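Following up on my earlier thread - several people asked me to post the actual chain instead of describing it. Fair enough. Here it is, all 300 residues.
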Amino acid sequence: MSALSVRGLRKSYDGAEVVGGVDLAVEPGECFGLLGPNGAGKTTTLKLCLGLIEPDAGEIELLGEPVPRRAREARTRVGVVPQFDNLDPDFSVAENLMVYGRYFGIAPREMEQRIPGLLEFAGLTGRSDAKISALSGGMKRRLTLARALVNNPQVVFMDEPTTGLDPQARHLIWERLRRLTQEGKTLILTTHFMEEAERLCHRLAIMDRGRVIAGGTPRSLIAEHIEPQVLEVHGNGYEAWMQRAKDLAPRVERAGDTVFCYGDDVSPLIQSLSGDLVYLHRPASLEDVFLKLTGRDLRD
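Reply from S.P.:
Thanks for posting it. Predicted structure:
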């Protein structure tokens, strides 16, 4: 049985289709990523899967329960990390966890036993009495993650779990999320960080304009959609060089003052560089796939 099964999911607002016929299947114990530009429909899809909003059409099954009809029953075995931290500033770290436990009917004595382990997981041991205002952004995010685990959920939904964090805090959360999958929990996350998706996700789906436009493992998506080598070039004279590069590479793109060349072998391109041109030679990444499929234009 899939941890989450979605078929033909649709949702419109004011005549505009936000989610248009999405199909997803998430297996138990995997980390599944949902990627897409702003407005692609990722957060709406998560809310539909949790039964927080009603779909216009489609079928959702979460942990064997039909959603939204039995969403409440399903959510007793689910944890949620929202896009923005909503911790109660009037309560201490431990009190935030204690109060959240009441929503799941967990007795105070049992929560007292769970709190030390949750704080250790969040790297907040010794901070149980601290006020929320005394925590850094990374600490608040880790506490929000720990709070999502108070009911020992089978599935954890996370909406952009590391947005706004510095690299150290982000890497610590990545380590904690890997620990959860090693324990057999299923993670479903949205993210704008391609490195995050590439590091954490067993499989992922890329959404754009309410539809899934590609899916698979990070490695398979790179192999299927992008040339293996990338050359980034910028500096004085890049425009003239770009015209020559089009004869040497199967695909050449420009973004601002940077030229991106894709191919199986970019050594002829490197040999053609001269003058003040600066280059970076690297293997293709999930970000290259994302930009190829969704475009380089800004989405606001």
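The longest strand covers residues 16-26. That should answer part of your original question.
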